[in-house]
Amino acid sequence: MTEAQFQTLLQRYLDGQCTPEEALVVEQWYNRLEEAEGKVLRTQNQEAVEDAIWQRIQQNKKPEVPAPIVVQHPASFWQRPQLQWAAILLFAMGLGLLFPALKHLQTTQQPNNATANGWMRHSNTTAQEQAFRLPDGSLITLHPGSSLRYATGLAGPKREVYLEGEAFFQVSKNPARPFLVFTKQVVTTVLGTSFRVKAYAAGKEASVAVREGKVSVQAREHAQLDATPVKPAAYGVVLLPNQQVVYSVAKQHLRKELVDKPVVLVPQSFEFEERPVAEVLTALEKAYGVAIAYDKAKLAGCTVSIAFYDEPLFEKLGLLCKSLGAYYTMSEAQITIHSTGCQPSPQS
């Protein structure tokens, strides 16, 4: 084949007009270009021609179809009769071992509600709080290790429950049927509100803390069971939000006080710029529902610039007293500010 004929053949290859045999000749020529005896074209476009041929060779290549992969399915293993019988036997043995475990599990996870002799008992044997509703719709959150019992259906003129441990009550309002919580130490009576009772059987103290509404608390011994928050017992205590009562078993005494962390009941603005101290104290009273006593005459001329944010109530009081050179004390649920008044600074 002359040089001119070969050039023509290359052109026909690039144009896709070669027969399979001619194409094979061109591709063999291209593959031998790196060899010493490979035919070199007498053209200045040798490199460009080679690139064009290479592109065409790549286009002519048929995509390789991956060979199918055959994997023996495990099912063929189980299709052996002797292994099928072995599997059935193992399955049956497994059920025999599993059944007692399931039975034990069912026993331990059964709802801890029991009915006996007309009483319903809820016991929390878990490590988390458990919530449930009473027949009147009241929501009870029972702490771990605590139990609550009541007459089935919460029947009777009064809604009476018996607590051992700790629970938070959100009682449905029904003034016609007072709600009474009996513990070993105290009796708590409400008409419809939310509060927490903590009274473990072996505890030296029992406490009742109010979240909202009004609650009547009295010692269990000689309790006046017809008492209500509206008509409290003679020796009982009436609690308002952010207040609690602590009953000492040894002293058999009820001590009324504020809860450790009073919450904001009515949000107020706590930013004051040269405002009378009385205005700051009034805002704190409204926000937390607390009573704050102070000598109005001594603080009459006092102004203060102060801003409160998320500090607890007692921290707010501490900051205010520090700015006034005062201090506060607490007696039952009342806060008292002690101050000598505002003295003019030496520079003024």
Tell the overall outline.
Answer: elongated
Number of helices, counting only DSSP H or I runs of 4 residues or more: 8
Tell me the series of helices and strands, N- to C-terminal. HHHHHEEEEEEEEEEEEEEEHEHEHEE
Mean pLDDT: 82
Task: Classify the fold: give the CATH topology of the domain at 116-258.
Answer: Jelly Rolls
Percent helix among the residues? 25-40%
For the biggest sheet, the summary is: 14 strands, mixed
Distance between the termini: 120 Å
CATH architecture identity of the domain at 116-258? Sandwich
Structural class: alpha+beta
Q: For this structure, what is the CATH class of the domain at 116-258?
A: Mainly Beta
User: How would you classify the quaternary structure?
Assistant: single chain
Quantity of strands, as a count: 19
Stretches where pLDDT is under 50 for at least 5 consecutive residues are 65-78, 101-111
Radius of gyration: 45 Å
Provide the β-strand percentage band. 25-35%
SSE blueprint:
Layout: H1 3-14, H2 20-31, H3 46-60, H4 75-78, H5 81-109, E1 113-116, E2 119-123, E3 130-133, E4 139-142, E5 147-151, E6 159-170, E7 179-182, E8 186-190, E9 194-199, E10 205-212, E11 215-219, E12 237-239, E13 243-248, E14 253-258, E15 271-276, H6 277-288, E16 291-293, H7 296-299, E17 303-307, H8 313-324, E18 327-331, E19 334-338
Parallel strand pairs: 6-7, 16-19
Antiparallel strand pairs: 1-2, 2-5, 3-4, 4-6, 5-6, 6-9, 7-8, 8-11, 9-10, 10-13, 11-12, 13-14, 15-17, 18-19
Pfam families: FecR, FecR_C
Protein name: DUF4974 domain-containing protein
Domain FecR protein: 126-215
